[in-house]
Design goal:
Radius of gyration: 31 Å
Order of helices and strands: HEEEEEEEEEEHE
CATH class of one domain: Mainly Beta
Helix content: 10-25%
Largest sheet: 7 strands, antiparallel
Length: 229
């Protein structure tokens, strides 16, 4: 009879533990979000991807920006970085070649308003290019400052009140910075031209692959049914 109170206490404890365990097992797991059933139809809360990069082939990748409304193909070896107004690509430079090329970069920027090239005094050539069924204007520029050689090519594409600017830039250091003289200097200068021309061609091919895409559209507020609380 002396053991009855102890047995009763143990039974009460077991009942309490069972209630707590059952309550936890029936609740949502940690971090889960409860959603209304609405007759069994769950609304998807997954965010719509704004920028997506996919590999098209061993040599080409596809960059798509739904928010800015365009897609392009670019060499897979390029390193892309998203910006507030578009995307920037850093092109790799073959370090095994004797050259002084220090920078190869391509940029796509989308701005509001009419297209206009920056004011320059030295223009190498002008031209046009058909891109996505629209005519794009082109200029290229070369300059040499303190032994550094600069080359730039720019395309501008106007669609409505939006301007798409494509730009390619390269910088080649002076041969003296790498102590190149004689035949090594000549070889570096020739390699510089070949490297920049190849990158410029890849850039122009990227511009040619440009296509407009329809950006995602949000729900019309005037048609949205308010939720009563």
């Amino acid at each position: 009879m002396k053991k009855s109170p102890i047995i009763a206490i143990v039974i009460v404890i077991l009942i309490i533990v069972g209630i707590v365990w059952y309550g936890r097992s029936g609740s949502s797991p940690q971090g889960a979000t409860n959603q209304p059933t609405n007759g069994g139809n769950f609304a998807s809360t997954a965010p719509v991807p704004v920028v997506e990069t996919t590999k098209v082939s061993s040599k080409l990748s596809k960059y798509e920006n739904d928010e800015l409304g365009f897609t392009i193909n670019y060499p897979t070896g390029w390193e892309s970085t998203n910006t507030n107004t578009g995307v920037s690509f850093i092109m790799p430079i073959d370090q095994n070649q004797v050259s002084t090329v220090a920078k190869l970069q391509a940029d796509i920027n989308i701005i509001s308003g009419k297209c206009s090239f920056p004011p320059v005094t030295t223009i190498k050539d002008r031209g046009t290019l058909s891109v996505a069924g629209v005519t794009a204007n082109m200029i290229s520029m070369t300059n040499t400052v303190q032994g550094r050689s600069y080359f730039n090519r720019m395309y501008s594409l106007q669609k409505g009140e939006i301007c798409y600017i494509f730009s390619f830039s390269s910088i080649a250091l002076a041969p003296e910075t790498k102590n190149l003289t004689g035949s090594n200097r000549t070889q570096a200068e020739n390699n510089n031209k070949a490297i920049v021309n190849t990158a410029d061609t890849d850039f122009s091919n990227m511009v040619k692959s440009f296509l407009f895409v329809i950006p995602p559209v949000g729900q019309d507020e005037s048609k949205a049914t308010p939720v009563k609380k």
